[in-house]
Amino acid sequence: MPGIVPLVLPLSILLASIMTFGDLSENYEFAAMKSSGVSLQRAMRSLTFFILLLSIAAFAFANNIIPYSQYRFINFKNNIAQVKPAMAIAEGQFNDVGSFNIKVDKKSGEKGNSLTGVTIHKKSINNSGNTTVIKAKRGELVSNEESNILQLVLFDGYQYEDVPVKVHENREKVPFTKSSFEKYKISIDLSKLNDVDVEKEKISNTSTMLNINELNYTLDSLNTTISKDLISFAENIHTRTGTGYFNSFEKDTIPEKTPKDLLVFYTNSDKSRILEIAKSNVSSTSFTIVGTKDDLNFKQKNINTHWLALYDKFVIAYACILMFFIGAPLGAIIRKGGLGLPIVFAVLIFITFHFINTFGKKVAQENELTPFLGAWLSSIVLTPLAIIFTYRATRDMNLTISFDWLTKPFARIFSRGNLRPAFDFDSRFVNFDTARIIEDEQFRELEKLSNEELNEIVYNSKKLNNDDRKRNKALLILDRRGITQQTLFEEGKLFNQNYETLDDAAESYRFNSKVAFFLFFITIIMGLIAKNNPSKVWTLIACLIILIVFYISVYKSSQRLAEASNSLGRNIGINRFVQTVLAFPFYPIFHFYNKKQLKKAVSESKF
Fold first, then answer.
1. Which residues share a beta bridge with 177?
2. Is the domain of 336 the same as that of 297?
3. Which structural domain, as residue segments, surrounds residue 41?
4. What's the per-residue H, E or C state across 148-213?
5. Are residues 520 and 585 in the same domain?
6. pLDDT tens by residue, 280-317
7. CA 337 distance to own-chain centroid
8. Could you tell me the pTM of the whole model?
């Protein structure tokens, strides 16, 4: 039960903080606090202090109670298996009980004493293998607490036994013996197994059983051991390759010019013998290197496991603080208490935390990440979320999150100038006091035009590719003639709303499509790098991040294309669903096709 606390405690804090602050916000308690001069930070102050104390208690619990409980639990479970061998027989696998390996298909009965499908391998005395096999349709375990003998009664079966031979070649000439039985009793001596003190604890090397001081001591011993193994292995290989022998030669004894092929000094028989010896040495050395590598990898994984156990004690404490600063601001933002929406948010956030935490530990245990980064990966990922939620909650901002920050860095790369802002009605009105309109030669030419011609310049400014200066001059001339901007707006002549909406959607599509087109090839390149370097976790993470940004850009481009289609009242280019689903590997085709269709649609529009 104490081992469940690291999972339950952060989730409990997250859910409780979302429900509490959501309920306060839903009932306008925060509005009353703020009207009285009490800020959200001040409302969270006492709870923050409580959470800090709780995190310290969680650290002490993880450092003392959990290791002790794991220590007692594993040892006690081991002792139970020895005292009650019936409990040690698991279904569907071989179980080592005394001098027998017993496998059963199914256990039944109140105490699991009735067995079905029994297979027994009897251990030989001289370790020559399992020469005796017993198979029975059913069996029964009969034991007495006062006796050291466990009786296994078998029904309706066969016993097979190989007759040992001195010469292996004669084995096929000697048949095995086979005997059948209706009832067969086997007595298993459990005196050694039952001579167990339930308070005696033997297992003490599991990382989950150790506190910080014990982990530091164990890690120091493990690092020292692996360092000695590396030095010993290097010296052993150095000796076996003979480099030490060659280094012992004095310089005067080494000829200045040595032939490229040293075997020319030997006869053919000597050459053959030397090459066989060399081949044998290389094979032996290669086998030793492979075996030692696996052994060192196992020891390194053991070290990583101990490091993860050490960092976990601090991660549990930090997770309590992190979940509070995610849950409390989130509850204030969503303004929902009770057991509805808060549970959904709490479960989603905690599943994300737990998944990243498990992934980080597994990767770190395989020595693909440092144990520190593997243990703290989930906290590193979710800490920015806590900062964002706290920032937005303290400034009364909603939960709307935009992905424009992912695509804006590419704006300067793909846009010829500044990106035009989204369509805005107010942007089409001009303040003559701040517009700084110069009455130059162009202005005097515009004064010669009629009101209808000036209105055409104003109305279709973007369609005619007129700059804002020319449009502003036309508006000023019309204003002086008594035709104000408000009058033009009421008559629907201030701007071509349909065309400008279409043009803005088309411009936004071109930008996002260019970003997606660029990221398509970057994703392929990163995928090839990750394929050639599968052991490098950073390549997989980078590839995944770029792929996510690629699909966001694809989604935004298809969204803008849909807006342009709605403006025209007909579909343009590839279907939005098809474009998103088949973005890989067909996006370059979609990009050029949609671009061509959009250009044609805009030029043929009758707006």
1. 161
2. no
3. 2-65+308-394
4. CEEEEEEEEEEEEECCCCCCHHHHHHCCCEEEEEEEEEEEEECHHHHCCCCCCCCCCCCHHHCCHH
5. yes
6. 888 878 887 887 887 888 888 888 888 888 888 888 88
7. 31
8. 0.50
